[in-house]
Structure of RteC protein:
Amino acid sequence: MWNAFLSHPFAYEYYRAGAIELDRQYFLMSSEGGGLFGSEAADFDKSFSTPADYLFSQFRAYGLLKEWIFERLDYLARNPAVAYQPGSEAGELRWTGDSVNLAELGYALVLSGQFNNGQAGVAQVFRWLEEKLSVAIGVPARRLASIRSRKRLSRTKFLDELKDALERKMDQDDGR
């Protein structure tokens, strides 16, 4: 990666300075490059490339990468909570329950306005849940139809189970 900078310090300074004096030698297809780039320039396709286009594209790409890295480091310095996320040491979480249960939870979260001040859409929340929990939920409308078609006991079976589990835990802690 850094070989382009180290092997061609004059070309790199030329690039950084925004100079144009040698552009005819560097960037015309009819040019041979005047031996400026050694054996590397001998391999370029003269019907498509110029003696310096690949080298200068490397300079540009590395410069953009460097800029992005510094922007990201600055962002992380200003937002330390993003850099360190508690619980990340425990590894990734994966949804191991039924995907229809996650769909039920996802719909409940969307319809109760829990994401983005109630502005998040169903598809957006489903894709987020899928990404974060490493699971495929499927098409939201089909999942809602499946949940709605439940006739036995409760259409919100999973949410009822969650509520019951939480109440049992609190009752146990209260000594009931």
